């Protein structure tokens, strides 16, 4: 009863979730039961159950009669960035104040694994370790409500705001500050991650505008 | 036959909503037993939908399930849980109030104004009416913030949060805060609204509830 045996559907959900977060399944792409079943060597029933789980988590959505990876509207993206930043900052600050040695060990280990996976260009392992690292920080806050909320937010955000690279770049400062119990430094580290993410979003808009202006001018427009 | 079955589901839902409101508004206080038979009589229904309603409230963490011979009871707050909730509450309300101030429409501001009660300065406010006003005000803020993600988070923790808000509420001053918040939001000053909220939920905000 206490030892939870993972069902086939849960394993399928984990695998597909990871692919979505690793961006090997892109927003808007369709999820076909038969193909996924063949890919993972299972029958279609657990795949159907898994897709239902992912739909509840908001990672996939029904489009007509098929199911596709959910596309975030730009407005959602901006909102998510603000909501995630607020809750991440609170969770990390609490982690700095309340973590046990075991918590710290897990934060360190998952962060190291994430850095390794990024270095190896292993997208699957990167997605897994990003989730594990962020989950480890939430757990260390010892606040069950925050743990629940950050699980929902991680699924919803799915790497669209914080890329693994951004997390890795600023993560070392965050991990060190959690270790030293320095709540102000933790807060600063988390804010820096989101500032970098926001900067990347802005740059994308401006670069796209510039490229289009250049192309139009080259074609003889104004 | 099927008619009876389909009619039963909304009945349980209706009772769950009514009981939730009574718990959240502090009418049924922590520790109060929820006796299926007497609640059934109160609502004029059989015990089955009452049982289903109570199960729903257990899932919302508002009620502690009963044993073989003991009834379910309204959940109280332990100190750790209050601390955990207060952190989440502060973060969530700050976001919702910011966005409400930024995104408000004229009609919504009017609706918000209608919720703010007239408050006497001698502290003689009606506690039950004030609780209802505070919770209605909060609901309206979520409408104004117009954010699916905040709505979702509110569904996750909202019932517990509102139960705590309701118990910690000081009816003598809550109305003044509502009026000030309304004015900040009406002029679209998100920063001012956050400051007022911060003062309202400053450390110690939940001390009253802790004594339950």
Key traits:
heterodimer, A: 222 residues, mainly alpha, Arc Repressor Mutant, subunit A, Four Helix Bundle (Hemerythrin (Met), subunit A), 9 helices, B: 212 residues, three-stranded antiparallel sheet, 3% strand, disordered N terminus
The portion of residues assigned to helices of chain A is over 70%
What is the assigned CATH homologous superfamily of the largest domain in chain A? GntR ligand-binding domain-like
In what order do the strands lie side by side in the largest sheet of chain B? 1-3-2
The second-level CATH architecture of the largest domain in chain A is: Up-down Bundle
- How would you name the oligomeric state of the polypeptide chains in this document? heterodimer
Question: How many individual β-strands of chain B?
Answer: 3
Biggest chain-to-chain interface with counts: A-B, 20 and 17 residues
Number of helices of chain B: 10
Specify the CATH class of the largest domain in chain B: Mainly Alpha
Shape of chain A: globular
Uncertain stretches of chain A: none
Integer-rounded radius of gyration of chain B:
18 Å
From N to C, what is the helix and strand string of chain B? Answer: HEHHEEHHHHHHH
The average pLDDT value of chain A, as a whole number, equals 89
- Say what the CATH topology of the largest domain in chain A is: Four Helix Bundle (Hemerythrin (Met), subunit A)
Cα-to-Cα separation, first versus last residue of chain B: 46 Å
Structural class of chain B: mainly alpha
Distance between the termini of chain A: 71 Å
